[in-house]
Amino acid sequence: MSSADPQPSTADDPIANLPLLELRDGLSEVVDSDPALEDTVEAFRSGSGPVAVDAERASGYRYSHRAYLVQLRREGSGSALVDPIPFGDLSALGDAIVDTEWIIHAANQDLACLAEVGMVPREVFDTELAGRLLGYPKVGLASLVSEVLGYRMRKEHSAADWSTRPLPAPWLVYAALDVEMLIELRNAIEQELRREGKWEWAEQEFAAILDAPPREPKPDPWRRTSGMHRVRNRRSLAVVRALWEARDQIAESADISPGRILPDAAIVEAASAMPVDRDTLQRLTAFKGRGAHRHMRTWWEAVDHARRLPESQLPKQGPRYDGPPPARAWADRDPDAAARLSAARAAVAEIAEAHRLPTENLLAPDTIRRLAWSPPAEVNLEVVTAFLRDHHARPWQIGLTAEVLTDAMTSEAASLD
């Protein structure tokens, strides 16, 4: 912004006028040696109450999703910033706090990388998920801290490359602040959950986080290439697949984010242009960058391989999926199913609104689609309850939705007779 530009006013911005959150105990040294880790383990073992836990990854910079910094805070223990890279395994630290509740914001994002270093909780409190159950419109950590506790948080280093060593002091302050107020936030949110009769819901949701099976790799991950909608035929899809897989191998080997080796735009441009030789490929606009040139031989070999594939080995036009087709196609393919889906969605949305919940947190949209597309042969409350249970709905969700879904299925079926 130039000096001539008007400065934005904060008079009408309540968040801008909140006090800035600061570290109460100052910035501690990064734990990166065996003696320091031993002291940290003992400090957190002797602390009291739940422990706030966070982890920083290098998304967008590295191929792996490993943790490059682990932050903790506990009453009587203070805060700690632990560098997991020198150790590889932090199971001693995990064991020291395993018998207490771990407070994690957006636990699904951090549990996998924490498990990689040997830190696996037995009990969690997810402040983001709790915020959703309470109907907060914004559930990012900074938003909840400002709304619930009245502090403004720094968020300027959220997209930093946390694999950088040494980590700059301002980044470390930002990281330490992420656990500074988690315990207070957790306690305030629990009070709200209890007041609104949602505490048991939260307990079931937190248990489900830990009980969830490991995520299965999605089939055909290359189909998530940005810009795929511009790829029109199976031969071009083969080029996308070949370039994506070649890039993925290089990225994994070098532990570099795939997009930093070859952008998605380059993959889609090559698939659309279908170059006939290496010179034509490297003249494409998206292949003129230094990163693309470094592996030009690999890119051309991938494109040439896709160009020569027999028709029988070309990928299918649409992705593989074991569930119902996209809902937008239901009206043409199965009008009865489309009517059931409309009735079920309306019923669930009404309950969600009444309880100030996001619809997707009341019941997974995929579960509703599956029920509407292929309902049981006999639809009654017992059968629908079993269906929801088989699709991992929690008891509180079943209690709120099973009856209305049964009514939606049966009333819609009656209207079609």
Structure description:
With 417 residues, this protein is α/β, with parallel strands linked by helices. The protein has three domains: 30-211, Ribonuclease H-like superfamily/Ribonuclease H (Nucleotidyltransferase, domain 5, 2-Layer Sandwich); 221-313, HRDC domain (DNA polymerase, domain 1, Orthogonal Bundle), CATH 1.10.150.80; 327-416, DNA polymerase, domain 1, CATH 1.10.150.80. The protein is built from 20 helices and six strands. The chain has helices at 34-45, 91-96, 107-116, 127-133, 141-149, 169-180, 182-195, 199-211, 234-254, 258-261, 264-273, 278-282, 290-294, 296-308, 330-333, 335-354, 359-362, 365-373, 381-390, 395-416, and strands at 30-31, 48-56, 69-75, 78-82, 102-104, 124-126. It has a six-stranded mixed sheet with strand order 1-4-3-2-5-6. A hairpin with a 2-residue loop joins strand 3 (69-75) and strand 4. Helix 4 runs parallel beside helix 7, helix 9 (234-254) packs antiparallel against helix 11 (264-273) and helix 19 (381-390) crosses helix 20 (395-416). It is flat and about 65 Å long. It starts with 29 loop residues before the first strand and ends with a helix. Residues 1-10 have low confidence and may be disordered.
Q: Architecture of the largest domain, CATH level 2?
A: 2-Layer Sandwich
- Contiguous runs where pLDDT drops below 50 for at least 5 residues: 1-10
Shape: flat
CATH topology of the largest domain: Nucleotidyltransferase, domain 5
| Content-based structural category | alpha/beta
- As a percent range, the share of helical residues equals 40-55%
* DSSP helical segment count: 20
The CATH homology group name of the largest domain = Ribonuclease H-like superfamily/Ribonuclease H
**Alpha-carbon distance between the termini?**
65 Å
Across the major sheet, the strand order is: 1-4-3-2-5-6
How many separate domains make up the residues? 3
